Amino acid sequence: MTNPDPHPTEELIACGEDVTVEVLVPREVPLGGPRAMTVRRTLPARHRSLVGAWCFLDHYGPDPVSETGGMNVPPHPHIGLQTVSWLFTGEIEHRDSTGVKAMVRPSEFNLMTGGRGISHSEVSTPETTVLHGVQLWVALPAEAKDVEPGFDHYVPDAVRGEGWEARVFVGSLLGDTSPVRTHSPLLGAELLLDDDTTMTLDLDPSYEHGILLDAGSLTVGEEDVEPGELLYLGTGHHRVTLRAGIAARLVVIGGPPFGEEILMWWNFVGRTHEEVVAAREEWQAQLHRDGELVTDSTLVQPGRFGVVPGQHLPPIPAPPMPQVRLRPRR
């Protein structure tokens, strides 16, 4: 998914002081156009930009496609990050410049590595009537930020207990471990709780965690969480008690504090102003022919981001750079 903000602000993100418990309230962001989908974004937030290496979290739906038009995101670039798609309802066609064409379906994990540069598109299928899910970004550590782009797909088995069901798509939780390899330690899982269910979740105390409530009612420890909110738990938690009054669906993410500063602007994760500017210029160079913006999907010089095969939608131009040098927004 692309960041649709026409004037994205830069953010210098760092591992800061630990906060034991914090509730992040989502803000609504339209993906573009009068009938566009609206997503609820909890990361990055004004006072917290990372949970482990997770640096971006969009939550959407359930949206009737007949009203919103569904997801229709043309080719756009990424560097220095990985994208994670996890659906609850609906189906999305993913295409990228490595030649991958994959269907994103409920309970199936899709991980795209941008690395040194990739472009991709995401379009909900004609058969999709309701679209509902999350998309997240993972910041790549310095030693891996320029890796070759790629794509991984994994279908986790359900792990069940009394009144609950979980699917661990990355990392380890509830005795299950995902085989997907990542460039930094990560945790990602979907958890379903029945009505009036209480369970204890054992946590890695070296991780910080985020718990996103999709639907239902949830109390975590002594903290009530509303649908759409992300509860942040700092390091040092060995376990947490979850209580669902009404059947709840939640997404649990986590990882050790990232420990690096990263500059995030539009769809790019870099370390310096110059790195982000260079990536933008290279993407814009792909989109122009004889000085004019290309209005179809044909690019003259694919460059570092490549071309998305079989995609007729014209690529998304980058927003203008700010008139000042990108600086930290702490």
From TrEMBL:
Pfam families: Pirin, Pirin_C. Coiled coil: none annotated. Residues 310-330 are annotated as: Disordered. Residues 38-138 form the Pirin N-terminal domain. Residues 312-322 have a biased composition (Pro residues). Residues 190-285 form the Pirin C-terminal domain. Belongs to the pirin family. This is Pirin family protein.
